[in-house]
Design goal:
Strand order of the largest sheet of chain B: 1-2
Shape of chain B: elongated
Number of strands of chain B: 4
Strand content of chain B: under 5%
CATH architecture of the largest domain in chain A: 3-Layer(aba) Sandwich
CATH class of the largest domain in chain A: Alpha Beta
Oligomer: heterodimer
Largest sheet of chain B: 2 strands, antiparallel
CATH superfamily of the largest domain in chain A: P-loop containing nucleotide triphosphate hydrolases
Helix content of chain B: 55-70%
CATH topology of the largest domain in chain A: Rossmann fold
Strand order of the largest sheet of chain A: 6-7-8-3-9-10
Distance between the termini of chain B: 28 Å
Number of domains of chain B: 2
Number of helices of chain B: 17
């Protein structure tokens, strides 16, 4: 099982949203990381076949997904970023409707819906209308619908938005298990989610992959670029202005700054252990406070 | 099929659908039929306005039917004279209860239409009240003459005239007479208004079919499922049409049921000329009623297709609702200010025309051939509406991808 992105591009007039992206994805969990406007959602929509690429193509097991049509959609699970639902439907009705759209026979769908409602911990709310659900509950229904047809390729756009920490852990475990023999691509701003479950990270900037690799490989790339510096509180503000500060921690009268920089920012700075978040900030210095 | 049932269930589950269907039933069945029969149309008159009628329509209708039965059967000059004599004796006695039993709208209209030379312009009373009954002769010859005069006045000459007169030749004469007022209300008032009333409630029910989808932002989900938007669109269209048929079915059952209960079947084989003398269609009351319901049914199907197209074009359900209502009420409102040919063209839009056209002598001239207007009024709206369906699907699909 293989999903190939072959010089995939999407242009909106003169604006280039995705620029000549290529990758070969086998079974596993792929974390798509990038700032707002980096082209993640556009790329995901092309991978789902919703958007037609301006150039290049997406191949599933060597066949163009555009030509596969329903055959590809049959193995696809998608959770869009702006997840739409029918407010008047109950959770069960909504999932049954999507099962019918996914071509799952009613007798199978019934069992699958029940099973998935348990997986996302919503069995007790199966007959409640979606309009009464909290943001996190809706998101869990979104995750359940993506899993309905036991997809070979699952694309999740911001799947953990709105989930509380316990739900996030539950979701991460679910995806981690699922990704063992399926292709899961998830995009998120929450770096810790990717750090926890992604087998490979695709770092996207201005429509291109700027880094690809496992979490440890990418962390290696950030190694030597992360510093800790203790300064008086009064200087914290000026440091925030002149450097990329990943973290700021008060210790008595002083402040410990975590600075991302190619060079030693100050004589007093000492090297610190790098994380994926540091790499993210290295590439997206304007995106502070992740 | 599964998708259709789920979509259909969703449409029925909408509060707007439930309320509009309920209101439609209340308006058409309760007010338009039951209360109308029992009270304000057929309740015996107290001489003021119809809302002050007695609540005795059922008994009153029986009395009318029994009274008309005295003169029932073949309508000859003698039978008409007998009716007029009896009418005059009732007016002489000023007996309001007896007057309630007479066929007090249609029979006087025959006398005034067929015997205008017997009219006394200075007399404020209806002509039937003072005319000498024995002078009322030559009913069918006079009917033929007023028909021909009407065609001449309407500038319907040549081939068109021949076409209509040929149609008239098939009308069976002499006519059979029984109490006409019940059929007059059904064919002349209830059925023509039915389409207009259903427009409102159908629009409320069908406007969200596609427009609601836009509001719910479900496009990406539908586009990435195996059956995809095509199956969803098919299910939506079928469930929209099914809903329209079901609403119509409820109205049909309620309307016909109450009609059978209050009016019975008496007079079903009377020719429609008993309601409008110069009608040229060789139809009896039952055939006319079937035509009326088929007309509304096909109009409803056509209109459902049109509303679903508008729903696929509009971003909000409210906009779809307004557009849907405008598609019927706007042509109805502006029609009278337009030339006659434009009025006839507008009548071809779903639910804009009227089943009462069977009483008229309207024709359409197509490639030099004259066609009686009801033939086109029954076919074109449904074709137009069904023709909207592929455009609705295409439009919706395009929007889903945005």
């Amino acid at each position: 099982m293989e999903l190939s992105l072959d010089r995939l591009s999407k242009h909106y007039g003169s604006k280039i949203a995705v620029d000549q992206v290529s990758a070969v994805l086998g079974p596993g969990v792929y974390g798509l990381l990038g700032a707002n406007g980096a082209g993640k959602t556009t790329l995901m929509r092309m991978l789902c076949g919703i958007l037609e690429p301006t150039a290049g193509e997406v191949l599933f097991d060597g066949k163009s997904i555009a030509e596969m049509g329903a055959g590809y959609r049959n193995v696809l699970g998608y959770l869009p970023q702006d997840f739409g639902y029918y407010p008047g439907d109950s959770a069960e009705e909504f999932l049954m409707y999507l099962s019918a759209l996914k071509g799952i026979p009613r007798h199978i769908a019934k069992g699958r819906v029940k099973e998935l409602l348990e997986v996302v911990d919503l069995s007790a709310c199966a007959s409640k209308k979606l309009k009464t659900f909290s943001g996190g509950m809706k998101q869990r229904i979104g995750i359940a619908q993506a899993l309905l047809n036991k997809p070979e390729v699952m694309i999740l756009d911001e799947p953990t938005a709105g989930l509380d920490p316990r739900e996030r852990v539950r979701f991460r475990n679910l995806i981690s298990d699922y990704g063992e023999n399926k292709i899961v691509i998830l995009s998120t701003h929450i770096v810790s989610d990717i750090e926890a479950i992604a087998d490979e990270v695709l770092l996207m900037k201005k429509g291109s992959f700027v880094q690809k690799g496992t979490v440890s490989e990418l962390i290696d790339k950030a190694r030597g670029k992360v510093w800790e510096l203790t300064v008086p509180s009064s200087q914290a503000h000026s440091w925030q202005k002149k450097a990329t500060v990943a973290n700021l921690r008060h210790e008595g009268e002083d402040v410990v700054l975590r600075i991302i920089s190619d060079h030693k920012p100050d004589e007093g700075a000492i090297r610190a252990e790098a994380s994926l978040e540091d790499l993210y900030l290295y590439y997206f210095p304007a995106e502070k406070g992740v | 099929m599964e998708l259709f049932w789920l979509e259909h269930k969703r449409l029925w589950k909408r509060k707007s659908t439930q309320i509009s269907v309920l209101l439609c039933l209340i308006y058409v069945v309760v007010f338009g039929s039951i209360l109308s029969y029992q009270w304000f149309t057929f309740g015996s008159s107290t001489g003021y306005n119809s809302f002050r009628n007695r609540f005795d329509g059922y008994a009153s209708i029986r009395a009318c039917q029994q009274y008309a039965g005295q003169f029932g059967g073949v309508l000859t000059d003698e039978a008409l004279q007998e009716m007029v004599r009896d009418y005059q004796s009732i007016t002489d006695r000023d007996d309001m209860d007896e007057m309630n039993k007479t066929d007090r709208y249609k029979v006087p209209s025959w006398v005034s239409q067929l015997y205008p030379e017997l009219n006394h312009p200075q007399d404020y009373r209806l002509e039937i009240s003072y005319v000498e009954p024995e002078k009322l002769t030559g009913f069918y010859e006079r009917r033929q003459k007023i028909l021909e005069d009407f065609l001449a006045i309407s500038d319907q000459t040549g081939e068109e005239r021949e076409y209509l007169l040929k149609m008239n030749e098939k009308v069976e004469q002499p006519f059979r007479y029984q109490w006409t007022e019940g059929w007059n209300v059904i064919l002349g008032s209830n059925l023509p208004e039915l389409g207009m009333v259903m427009t409102l409630f159908l629009t409320i029910s069908l406007a969200p079919v596609f427009a609601g989808e836009w509001h719910d932002r479900t496009g990406p989900l539908l586009l990435t499922t195996k059956n995809g938007w095509k199956e969803a669109a098919r299910a939506k269209i079928c469930s929209g049409l099914a809903l329209a048929v079901e609403i119509f079915g409820l109205i049909l059952v309620g309307g016909v049921g109450s009609q059978l209960f209050f009016l019975g079947t008496e007079g079903w084989d009377m020719p429609i000329q008993m309601i409008k003398l110069i009608a040229v269609a060789p139809m009896n009351m039952l055939q006319a009623e079937i035509f009326g319901y088929v007309f509304v049914f096909l109009g409803v199907i056509g209109y459902a297709g049109l509303v679903m197209l508008l729903s696929s074009c509009a971003k909000s359900t409210f906009a779809a609702l307004l557009l849907g209502l405008s598609a019927v009420y706007l042509p109805l409102a502006v029609s009278e200010y337009l030339p006659f040919w434009a009025q006839k063209a507008l009548d071809l839009l779903p639910l804009v025309g009227s089943p009462a056209d069977i009483f008229r002598t309207n024709t359409f001239c197509i490639f030099g051939k004259y066609v009686w207007s009801p033939y086109l009024l029954i076919i074109v709206p449904v074709l137009l509406g069904l023709g909207c369906v592929p455009f609705a699907v295409r439009r919706w699909a395009r929007r889903m991808r945005r």
